[in-house]
Amino acid sequence: MTENGGPPPKPKRKPKDILRLRGQRIITEEDLDRTFPDDGEAGRLEIDGRRVLHGFVLVFLVFLLVAAVVAALAVMRGDLKIPGWDPPPIDTAPEVCPAGPFDYPDNGSFTVNVFNSTNREGLAGDVSGLLADRGYKVGEVASKEFTRTRITAAIISGPEGAANAFNLQRNIPGTEYRVDERTDASVDVILGEEFKELVPENRVDQTPGPLSCPQLSPEPTPSE
């Protein structure tokens, strides 16, 4: 009781935002909110960071793809040389026409392969039959593509078959001789669009002579 008979006054409490336990301040939820950002904001920042990283990676990959395409085109055009990627050197030595002259060998002493490079169906079979009638040993008979079709025929052999090719040139007028790397004495006859007929058998010139090679360089003589 007080002197005037009233109840004693209540003790004054400390403000709500300052709480102490045994003299130490207690950290409240409001203190934590002020110190650390809201979880939702942190999550948004993390998602935005991932989006930026993904965008950077995508742009980088697109750049690498474009660079690879540009480099490939440059290599194909020959503008860019990559060490070790060059194709092996190609032997560009010109083919030469054998010098001759050649003797006329017997028709049955070698094998003839007959090919049709035209659209005339059955041409190779017809010509191979005519050659067989003259005593030639006919080998393969088929169609074959050839770089030049506006010719009578191309006669092709290796070095061992040069004289045999000369024999066929005397039987098929207007032919062109080509040489390849075969090691046997066989001869290929590739018939072209201009082929019409064989030289009549009784009019074939069998005297020695040279090969006709309009597409080849002449073989150099020993003095050259």
TrEMBL record:
Q: Where are the membrane-spanning stretches?
A: 52-75
Q: Which keywords accompany this UniProt record?
A: Membrane, Transmembrane, Transmembrane helix
- Report residue spans for region: Disordered: 200-224
- Could you tell me which InterPro entries the record lists for this protein? LytR/CpsA/Psr_C
- Tell me which Gene3D superfamilies the record gives: 3.30.70.2390
Q: Where is the LytR/CpsA/Psr regulator C-terminal domain?
A: 110-195
Name-wise, this protein is LytR/CpsA/Psr regulator C-terminal domain-containing protein
Q: Which organism does this sequence originate in? A: Arthrobacter crystallopoietes BAB-32
